[in-house]
Design a protein that fits this description.
With 331 residues, the protein is an alpha/beta fold. Helices cover 38% and strands 17% of the residues. It has 3 domains: 143 residues, Rossmann fold (3-Layer(aba) Sandwich), CATH 3.40.50.2000; 58 residues, no CATH class; 85 residues, 3-Layer(aba) Sandwich (Rossmann fold). It contains 12 helices and 12 strands. It has an 8-stranded mixed β-sheet, with helices on both faces. The chain has a 4-stranded parallel β-sheet with strand order 11-10-9-12, with no helix packed on it. The longest helix has 18 residues.
């Protein structure tokens, strides 16, 4: 069986769990002797370039190659496609070429227009996607957007979408463009999700909450397999580290972003009346929003010397670091 993995962006990126997860899957398939090839998306001014990865063919698709994705898949002739990105496009290609497509959902953004699967109260969302229900969340993710919501919600949906299409023809205007295109973004997410839900062969969901959200939005329960994402374990797992002088070490591993709830973790830890406790935060940021979030947290808790920021750590070194800690709050 020839399997092609559609990477979550650049195959060699370690920005988020999705990228690392795909690389772990490919490494394990290679170890077990499966026939696997990889399509990776890179920030290069090229169409398609090839390279060898551990004896496996890796296709790097640049900015000029997205339109050639179907012809590349036809060239590879896989028996199964496993999609981690470009999901709607890949599902459409699979349907056209009669190739089964398995889609892995890495987070709630596969169905949620705001990308978080949280409502405006930061609680798990239990409502199907719609313009009416999603507009407030989408605008809240845009700087100053929450102040515009009372006005923008009064616009008829078709007028709001037309505004978005008009703005898409103009140069990007900070704040104005993303706020003006919110309705269009919701519509696009709904169309994209409908294509995925209708024609994917199998959907892998990482948890029950995302599985239920998919079913609320039209995915057949029979297509879903719940498979929590894991990490490769070392051959020998060390014993629980000793607690020396009563010092308990908490730790978090993941991206530094709002949806991970670090502000809640830090607030809870700050209320812990124990000078021997430590909180170790392992992870990095990848965009302006995440950098602002990280900066605000570091500033707010700068006086608490029990909090240790380690920054981004290479995936292969994470286990060696956390083996000395005691209690995980990882995402």
């Amino acid at each position: 069986m020839n399997i092609v993995e559609i990477a979550s962006g650049n195959f060699f990126s370690t920005y988020g769990g999705g990228q690392v997860y795909v690389k772990n899957i490919v490494d394990e398939m290679i170890r077990q002797g499966y026939s696997v090839q990889v399509i990776s998306f890179v920030n290069k001014d090229c169409a398609v370039e090839t390279r060898d990865y551990k004896g496996t063919m890796l296709y790097e698709v640049g900015s000029n190659g997205i339109d050639r994705l179907e012809s590349l898949i036809v060239q590879i002739r896989p028996d199964v496609i496993h999609a981690h990105s470009h999901k709607a496009q890949v599902v459409e290609i699979g349907k056209k070429q009669h190739i089964p497509v398995i889609v892995t959902a890495h987070h709630g953004g596969i169905v949620c227009p705001a990308g978080t699967l949280l409502d405006c109260k930061d609680e798990i969302c239990h409502i199907a996607v719609s313009h009416e229900h999603c507009l407030a969340c989408c605008l809240r993710n845009i700087r100053s957007g929450k102040y515009w919501y009372p006005f923008m919600r009064l616009l008829p949906q078709n007028v709001y979408r037309s505004l978005g299409r008009g703005l898409s023809k103009l140069p990007f205007i900070p704040f104005v463009t993303p706020i003006g295109q919110a309705a269009l973004s919701i519509e696009r997410k709904q169309a994209e999700w409908h294509a995925i839900a209708s024609d994917c062969t199998r959907m892998i969901a990482p948890c029950q909450a995302i599985s239920r959200a998919m079913q609320r939005n039209g995915l057949s329960k029979e297509k879903i397999t719940i498979l929590p994402h894991g990490i490769p374990l070392p051959k020998e797992v060390p014993d629980f580290p000793p607690i020396i002088n009563g010092k308990i070490k908490f730790f978090y591993v993941g991206r530094i972003c709002y949806v991970k709830g670090l502000h809640i973790l830090l607030e809870a830890f700050s209320l812990l009346d124990n000078e021997n406790a430590e909180l170790h935060l392992i992870g990095g940021v990848g965009n302006k929003s995440e950098r602002r979030y990280e900066h605000s947290l570091k500033r707010r808790y700068a006086a608490d010397k029990r909090v240790v920021w380690h920054g981004k750590v290479p995936p292969e070194k994470v286990f060696d670091m956390i083996r000395l800690y005691h209690i995980s709050s990882s995402s």
